[in-house]
Amino acid sequence: MPKNYLLIPGPTPVPQDVLLEMAREMINHRGAEFSNLLKSSTELLKKIFKTNNDVLILTASGTGGMEAAVVNFFSQGEEVLVGICGVFGERFAKICKAYGLNVKTIETEPGKGIEPETLEKVLKENPNIKGVFLTHNETSTGVTNNLRELAYIVKEKPERLLIVDAVSSLGAIDLPTDELKIDVVVTASQKALETPPGLAMISVSELAWNYNEKANLPRFYFDLKQAKKFLNEGATPFTPAVSILFALRKALENILNRGLENNFKRHMVLGKAVREAIKALGVTRLLADERWASDTVTPVVPPENVNPDELRKYIRNKFGVVLAGGQGGLKGKIFRIGHVGYVEPTDILVAISSIEIALENLGCKGLRGKGVQVAEEIFQEYYKD
């Protein structure tokens, strides 16, 4: 078996020192050692979220965090707006509908983000909207919405809640929660935070807690009021994923020691290198418009005569490079290169080289070295100091 290079938008590769944290002996989740683990991890997370708001850690997937962001702040029949740029925006809308909310949507074409003018128009036409759900970084289409512009429009009405899915962006793309007045931010452990799957994290503003007092949607496991009460005592309401919490704390320490801004810059460079390399090949094209292109994942439309899933299979079997396929309506139409979390330029060079060789062997001649050369030039500039 060849060495594996996991280049999907999640779960992402995990550093060895983070993995080793999971080999610690089990501890009492109602004891002092766990209390210290939970509280210290929470304080580190606040730095990643760039917030002074409450941050709560749930044993759940990112979708569990999204569900918590719905059921804790709204009542049945209330009007909300969901921005949909792909599969995960659709998921937010499905959760809202499942709990009986009156859901309005803004939907974009694949590869395009939400236009500020469109958001402003919809909000003016629907003055009763209580909350707006936005996806910061949509991995299915490779789109990063401009939250700085969109948040300003949402919060022109200060009492309106702004809820953001940052599952695939927090830690990789700058998200100043408090500066942008975002009320609820959801993320998860298995993306930019370089930790195995199993934890969701959610920040909650004072305004959101006010909404929580009036919200009547059913909740039990995802009751954030209970989670906050237990956190004040250094515990969680239910049995937590202790080993993953050990790993998370180490990963957060690593990220902050490297410097959060440095993490943003590294992802920006990785994203640029992948996009420019794909353009240099000439036979493929980027799905996402450059204006909204993500620094964590790049969706690629292959040549017409190349099946993207067969291409991925070939690359995985021959080179051990694992790429992601399309989701939803894009299934079987694109492949996606993940460059989020514990990914370095060398991983990207291997991936681009593998794609070049695979395309050559599938009939696209004259590609060898074209994408790699462009990526190398970008990395050379990044590392020249």
Précis, in short:
By secondary structure, the chain is an alpha/beta fold. 42% of the residues lie in helices and 16% in strands.
Structure description:
The chain is of the alpha/beta class and 385 residues long. The protein has two domains: 5-10 and 259-382, Aspartate Aminotransferase, domain 1 (Alpha-Beta Complex); 16-257, 3-Layer(aba) Sandwich (Aspartate Aminotransferase, domain 2). Helix content is 42%, strand content 16%. The protein contains 13 helices and 15 strands. It has helices at 16-21, 32-49, 62-71, 87-98, 116-125, 147-154, 206-214, 224-232, 242-258, 260-281, 308-319, 345-361, 370-382; strands at 5-6, 54-59, 79-84, 102-107, 131-135, 137-138, 143-144, 161-165, 184-188, 199-204, 285-286, 297-301, 321-322, 324-325, 335-338. It has a seven-stranded mixed β-sheet with strand order 2-10-9-8-5-3-4, with helices on both faces. It has a four-stranded antiparallel β-sheet with strand order 11-12-15-14. Strands 1-13 form a two-stranded parallel ribbon. Helix 10 (260-281) runs parallel beside helix 12. The protein is globular and about 65 Å long.
Protein topology:
Layout: E1 5-6, H1 16-21, H2 32-49, E2 54-59, H3 62-71, E3 79-84, H4 87-98, E4 102-107, H5 116-125, E5 131-135, E6 137-138, E7 143-144, H6 147-154, E8 161-165, E9 184-188, E10 199-204, H7 206-214, H8 224-232, H9 242-258, H10 260-281, E11 285-286, E12 297-301, H11 308-319, E13 321-322, E14 324-325, E15 335-338, H12 345-361, H13 370-382
Parallel strand pairs: 1-13, 3-4, 3-5, 5-8, 8-9
Antiparallel strand pairs: 2-10, 6-7, 9-10, 11-12, 12-15, 14-15
Helix pairs in contact: 2-9, 3-4, 5-6, 10-12, 10-13, 11-12, 12-13
